[in-house]
Structure formats: C-alpha cells, structure tokens
Specification:
Length: 379
C-alpha cells in the first residue's frame, strides 16, 4: 500500500473485496444457496422471454376479446347525447362516468383498432342495460335519424330506385336512375343505414364503396386470371346467374355452362336477359321520356316476367342473349357476393343445358335431346 493515496487504497480494497465476494459466490453450493448454473440461466431467460413476447400477448388478446363483449355493469337503461364535434376522449370519459361502459380506455382502444373513431354519429341514444363496448360502438355508427333499407340480391337499378325513393325524402326516382345507370351490377345488395338527408350521389357512393369493400379480396388479378375473365365480364355473368338460378349449389354449375358458351363464341340463351328486355320494351315503346319507365310506370312494372312468348325471345336487343351472341353490354342486375364467387369458381361439368322449373329446381342435360325432354317434362 506504500505510495498509494487514501482514495486509491479504498478503491483497491473495494476491488479486492468484490473479487473475493465473486469467488465466494462461485464457490457456493448451487443446491444449498439457489445459485443458478449457466444452463439454468439460459432456461430462465428463454422462459421469461416466452412469457413476455408470446404468452402475455396471447393472454392480452383473449382478455381484450372478452372485455369488449362483456356487458356493462349497470342494470338501468341510459339516455346519452353525443354532441356534434365531440371527441372520442370526451365521449369515452362521459360514458364511463355514467356507467354505460366498463372502461373509457377500452372503448377508445376498440374504436381505434376498428377504425371507427370518425364514424360516431351525433344524436340522442337510448343505451340498454348491459350493453357491451362492441355493441355500443356499432349503435353509435347509426345516427338516431338513420333509415334502414335492405336492397335484395338480383334487383335491377329501377327496383333499388323505387325502394330508395319511398324511404328517403331527398332521393328522386328519375334522378337516381339517371345517375346510377352506369353502376348497374356494382350497387351492392345489402342492408344499409342512411342519413335521412342523403342524396342520390351519397346513396350511389355508399353502395359502390360497399361493393369494393366486399369484393376486394376476391376480385383479384389472380382470381380473374384463373377464370380467364375481366372484372366486368365476371360482374355481368354474375348478374345473369343471380337471376337464372336461386339455389347456391346450382350457381357454380350454371356459371360453368354460361362461361363455356361465352368462350366458345355462342349465345348464352339466358332467359333472364330476355326478361330484362321485356320488362321495359313495351312500356317504353314510342315514348319520349328522359327515364323510361318513369316512377309511376315503374311501380306497376313486372320487372322479371316469367311468361316469355316467341316474339319476346326474338326481340332484337344487345341485352337479349337469345338473339345476340356474347355478353350484354352491361349487367342486368346487382349480384350478391356468393354469386360473384360462383362465377370466379365455376364447376366444370358435362352439362351443356339447364332449365329451372316453376318450383325453382334446376334440371341439367348433356344433349339437346335431353334438354328438350326436360322442357316438355318440367315446363
């Protein structure tokens, strides 16, 4: 220690003490003093990492799923008003304060994860007792003045326009038919909630956006390439198949038959296209109207006439596939998702012909003779 300052002496003594302590620890009996070996340390590290990065996220996910569907802890119905411009922080805090939700943070998290923070509608809401976070978020997306409308699969534009005109005060039949004519086939059939002040443009935008949202994962380049059709061809064929057969199991078979006819360059011979032409052919003949049929005529029109006479089958129209080869210029109806999927996944079969009887049952034939026999038997 000669020549060392007091400070250096303290440091040296500390280092010596540390080294001795380390040696003492390393010499301890692991079983007696619970000192971890290198292998045990590795196992402990792996276990802790698994708990933090695997087990904990899984547990949190299941807790989240449970928490957002858990009923609120109030036994009373609650009336709550959302003011225009209110933030989700403000709404969440107020809901928690009145007991409408179990957690303000969970409600905000649910809105953000599901991209609903900008879809909350202002209005006065009656919140039932025991309403979960998920259910309440859905309720808040539809303002109290919203109007519920269901558009049916296979309807043509005029049918959609008639119902919309009856339900929505700012939507006019002729205005909607004119504006939406080019979107036939893309007006996705579904149940919608519309603000009572929605316009024709707003309605069209909502239906076409829904089409894109519902079909973006199925109308892919790969799917179109597999079936060998463009998106427009798929939608037109689906609009025909939707009207030709009603049973889900028949759609892919009929789709396969029609696709074969189309690719061979022949006529589709689909009655639905003749019905589409007949519905307006005689009402509008010789009339000069911007929209034909107009609203009053549309209310009494038979949009899908079941009785087709020979002069109907012979009608000259690019939409009548009994006379014109290939596809119609555009869709004849607005198909549902399952029918679009059927066209993208047609069933290859030996059948060349089909017909649907009065009970909606589809009968298939491999030859024209068999088909004519089915016509005599079932029609």
């Amino acid at each position: 220690m000669l020549g060392l300052t007091f400070e250096h002496s303290i440091k040296l003594s500390g280092n010596i003490f540390f080294m001795e302590a380390l040696q003492s620890i390393e010499s301890l009996d692991p079983k007696k003093f619970y000192v971890l070996t290198k292998n045990q340390k590795l196992v402990a590290t792996i276990a802790i990492s698994f708990a933090i990065f695997v087990a904990a996220p899984i547990l949190l996910f299941f807790y989240y799923k449970f928490a957002v569907t858990r009923p609120s802890q109030t036994a009373n119905e609650i009336t709550y008003e959302i003011h225009g411009g209110a933030s989700i922080d403000e709404i969440s805090r107020e809901l928690a304060d009145i007991g409408a939700i179990n957690s303000a943070a969970l409600f905000k998290l649910y809105l953000v994860i599901n991209d609903l923070q900008d879809k909350i509608q202002a209005g006065v809401y009656v919140i039932p007792a025991g309403t979960s976070v998920a259910r309440l978020a859905t309720q808040f997306q539809h303002g109290v003045n919203d109007i519920k409308i269901t558009f049916v699969e296979g309807w043509r534009l005029e049918e959609i326009a008639l119902l919309a005109t009856q339900k929505l005060k700012h939507v006019g039949y002729e205005g909607l038919v004119t504006a939406a004519a080019k979107y036939e086939g893309y007006l996705f059939p579904d149940t919608y909630f519309f603000n009572s002040d929605v316009s024709e443009v707003g309605l069209i935008e909502k239906l076409t956006k829904n089409f894109r949202a519902k079909t973006e994962d199925i109308l892919t380049e790969a799917a179109l390439g597999k079936v060998g059709l463009t998106e427009k061809e798929v939608v037109i064929l689906a609009s025909i198949v939707e009207r030709e057969v009603s049973a889900k199991e028949d759609r892919s078979i009929v789709a396969g038959i029609l696709i074969d006819r189309y690719k061979e360059g022949g006529r589709l011979d689909a009655d639905a296209t003749t019905q589409y032409v007949k519905a307006t052919r005689y009402i509008c003949s010789g009339l000069e109207q911007i929209v034909c049929p107009n609203e009053e005529q549309a209310k009494v029109a038979d949009w899908w006439p079941k009785v087709l006479l020979q002069h109907d089958l012979d009608a000259k129209s690019p939409y009548n596939t009994r006379m014109s080869a290939g596809l119609p210029p555009s869709s004849i109806s607005n198909p549902g998702l399952s029918t679009i999927v059927a066209v993208l996944n047609p069933t290859k079969s030996e059948y060349r012909y089909y017909l649907t009887d009065k009970d909606g049952v589809t009968h298939y034939a491999k030859t024209l003779d068999e088909h004519n026999s089915n016509i005599r038997k079932y029609l």
